[in-house]
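Lab channel / #folding
Pinned by the channel admin:
"Please post every new chain as: sequence first, then the structure tokens as a reply. Keep commentary short and put observations after the output so the thread stays searchable."

First post following the new format, from NK:
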Amino acid sequence: MAEIAALAGVSKPTVSKVMNGQPGVAAATRERVKRVIAEQRYVRNGVARALSAGRVGSVNLVMSEIDSPYFVEILRGVEETLDNAGLSMVLTTTHDEARRHRRWMARVVEHGTEGVVLVLPDEHAAPLEELRRRGIPFAVVDDRGESLSGVPSVGATNFVGGFAATEYLLSLGHRRIAVIGGQAYRCTTARLAGYRAALQEAGVPVDPHLTQPGSFRQEAGYAAANALLDAPEPPTAIFAGNDLQAMGVYRALYERGLRVPDDMSVVGFDDLPLVSLLTPALTTVRQPVRNMGALATRMLLRMVAGEPLENTRVELATSLMVRESCAPPRPLE
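Reply from TO:
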């Protein structure tokens, strides 16, 4: 405020009146102060106000959505960790809209926060740079985009998971193994790379016709499965990009009178609680989603406390959960 007052040629009380919309300031003076505030990109320090009022104790969780069980699991991990630390959580969903991105950033700066946990589909550098510039600690869960170097983040061993799923299907005798991808995220690229590496190691050619694109939603798995089943040479096994896609694959197979695993083996990815609803039980790659949210939050709290991080990037182990949705391919008649 002292800097604004000096630049505008007024006193600090005058700046305070302008900022708080109080009377007693001439119109021309008010406009001059507002112009200087805008030129200097001054934002009231919400953290300082919260400290003086004794209200600090919240962390902002910013997610693109909460419709998916995947995001709900991360939310639970963040919430449980903050609760144990005696902190509250402020949840914002952006729905991938630029307007909502700008709004949550403005709220964080204006009202103050201990720090921010981000779970967005594509972390552009701009919001991370803004948080870093303002000295607001942050951590990223499942960073799927191109992030800044040294960004504190938690992910999973997606390459290892993709390799393990494909290797298991190969061990059952499958050679025509299809894969359903997701959006062009870092995790998707790693899973596909693991899939291709397992095929190459087994001496099985990578057939581009067995790779289907799709989002991480049930309807994408359904559409991809139908496209694969309509191909001249359908696969004998499908490695879905996540459990929701696997549910869509189950539905497509059911509508065609095909049985899992007799007619088609299916593997998912994530091992979300909802897979317990599937019959037969789904073989899937377990990704510790809730722990990813919890660990990112613990990393953030260490930064808030001024403690150094041994590693800014942590990948939690994935593991293949073998259940009932896979079997050797049916012999050719």
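NK: The two ends are 83 Å apart (CA to CA).
TO: also worth noting, Confidence is low (pLDDT under 50) at residues 44-56.
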